[in-house]
Amino acid sequence: MHIIKVAGTNGKGSVCAMLEACLNGSGQRVGMFTSPHLTRITERFRVAGHEVALDTLDGIAQEVLRSAQRLVAQQGDSHVPSFFEALIVMALLLFHEQRVTIAIMEAGVGGYSDATSLLAGEVAVITSLGLDHQQQLGDSLAAIAADKAGIAKNVSRLILGPDISPELRAIIEKDVHVRELAVCQAQVDSRRVRLGDLRQPTRIEVEADGKTLSIALPLLGRHQVSNFATVTATLRALAEMAIIGGIECLERVRQTCWAGRLEVCDTVPRLLLDAAHNDQGLRALVDSLDDLLPYGERVLLYGASLGKDYEACLPQLSRLAPEIYLVEGFYRAQPARSIAARLPAHCGYKKSFPSPRQAIEYFSHCPDLGKRTLIATGSIFMIGELKFDLATTAESTNLSQRLETQDGSC
Fold first, then answer.
1. Out of 108, 213, 283, 319, which residue is the most buried by the measure of CB atoms under 10 Å away?
2. Model-level pTM greater than 0.85?
3. What b/e sequence results for 158-188 when a residue is b if at least 16 CB atoms lie within 10 Å of its CB, and e otherwise?
4. pLDDT of 64-97, one tens digit each?
5. Is residue 271 within 8 Å of 233, Cβ to Cβ?
6. In whole angstroms, what is the distance from residue 1 CA to residue 32 CA?
7. Cβ atoms 308, 277 nearer than 8 A
8. How far apart are CA 347 and CA 343, in angstroms?
9. 337 vs 335: CA distance, rounded Å
């Protein structure tokens, strides 16, 4: 089984999802492990483009539990695996049982700090570098770059995202030079990019196996151009290593689906979900929204997680929308009053909600919202709860409609 390891501050999930779409059907059986999940733990485990069934995952979890219990009995409590470590072992067992030929493994936190760095594979990817998880990785970009370089342990090639600066690349290369790794940095040719909007996708021309491919990106946002360039460089590396036959499989990127990343929900009001939880992510969201929606047509719903540097994000909030609402009440939520107390006076703050469900109920009956779009961003846990609440509401509505139809036919 070939392994691709993907690390980075932002863009990891999008790159993994695009790689999965491209590689599926190219003569490979693809497994993908990502973290965290939005609404179901099975989202983290995919084989051949499908989530693993819950009963299958439960059987593997029981096997890992028994192994962990034996290990702790022999070696002591210091060998109790973390939740994330147990999930990695579950993914590897699942992929082995399912005869996966290429496994895409997303790192959780950092590189050296992450258990995925121990996995042997062919290619490692660092998508981007920004300030996040500073308690574990360090309080500077240089320290974070040095830690992320650890994802390249036990591989022969390292792919860097196009937006990684020369200074940070030098730090990474200094680390991997000892291991004599081939390092390639993805490139974006802006002349071949036509940015899209909510109605039409971004299109990119790519030279692949002697042909010019016109690729329509299914994921919104100009930052996805950089992520796609990273995917292209990764596929070229796989082709050069004879793991895949070529990179014409790039055309299958149109099949990518990655929830919670500039995801447009067909609701009333229209809702756009994006799990931008740090300063770098919010800056990318601002740039993308400036392409997609007029400023005056946006309303912001923001919630942050405990342990995240939400104060660094606050200057971006007024750039996202002229009206700001806050929400708490989800897993590990930062109290809304703490965020509100630090908002700039001119930012257009309106009110806060005790839960995502109450926020959705308010906006669904808010006549002042009109045709504007509600931008929900911040904590991925908030995004997950919003998606769960929306799905629950839709199921209840559908059930009511079916019952009404049945009553009327009696």
1. 108
2. yes
3. bbbbbbbeeebbebbeebbeeeebebbbbeb
4. 999 999 999 998 888 888 899 999 999 999 999 9
5. no
6. 12
7. yes
8. 7
9. 5
